[in-house]
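Sample intake sheet
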Amino acid sequence: MSSSLEFFGWDSTWADAFAPHAAGGLTPGRVVRVDRGQCDVVTAASPVGAVVRAEFTRMDVCTGDWVALSGQYVHAVLPRRTALVRAAASGLSHGQVLAANVDVVAIVVPCTVDVDLGRAERLLALAWESGARPVVVLTKADACPDVARVHEQVAGVAVGADVVAVSAVRGDGLDALDGELTGTVVLVGQSGVGKSTLATALTGVDLAVQDVRHVDGKGRHTTVRRELIPLRGGRGVLIDTPGLRGVGLFDAEEGLSRAFADIDALAADCRFSDCAHGSEPGCAVRAAIDAGTLPARRLDSYQKLVRENEWAAARTDARLRAERRARERTFHRQMRGHFNRPGRGRTR
């Protein structure tokens, strides 16, 4: 593996951000893998096995981060340009960073007759919110009886994003996909959708792909951690992620607006600015549904995701209020202890 930082995305902007750390004698590097408080970091000299300092949690350092190293310790994390964030799988009221400083989010969707458009819309909202450019990759096209129909369905919900159908096994569509994937690319999708097979085709690195289960026809989960791997041909680097069982939205208002730009555009013509697109008179969104130009399923999906995002935001606000109250209580206890300690205030 080449250790050239430029190969991994280092540029003059990153150099400027790192300048204060360089003045302190620290070493720049990019995190290629994180595992239980330890991470592999590529530097200009060589790869380094680094330890995350105690004041960082595992969520503070992520694959794709640019960091400042002090020996074998991560001393600081540079501000991220982009970050793919979902609601924490544990149900806690904070976000989980899946990948940092990515240029393209490749949303992997299996090319099947019963394609899950709702999940594609959810992942598109996360991708747009990240600040990166989303691309939808329809995998397993060789096993689909009507690729054109599935492509049309997905393109209908992937507003502003390109959709490419591929067969990683036969190599179909990979040349077209190569043109979409530059810089730092992250693959996201459920287990069994063909991510690892696709990643192997894109990088030339055997990622130990497992066969499809005969019981339900689904692929077995292969990737167990996020890892940054050079793309074949030197076009950039790829982050392969474990299959996502749950993809909760977290602070994704802008992402939802981009993912459902067609509904937002229609809503601008509603009679009322706060139209809920229900039974209100003059609703342009409902008119489009009645005219057959907007599927009712898409509005339902949009409203469901908006409610979920608002609920997550309310939980975050409640957590922040609780943390502030806890800090205030701690401060007041400390002050009471200071003023009420024995002997204070006595005169001799």
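Comment: Residues 84-240 form a domain with the Rossmann fold fold (CATH 3.40.50.300). Confidence is low (pLDDT under 50) at residues 210-224.
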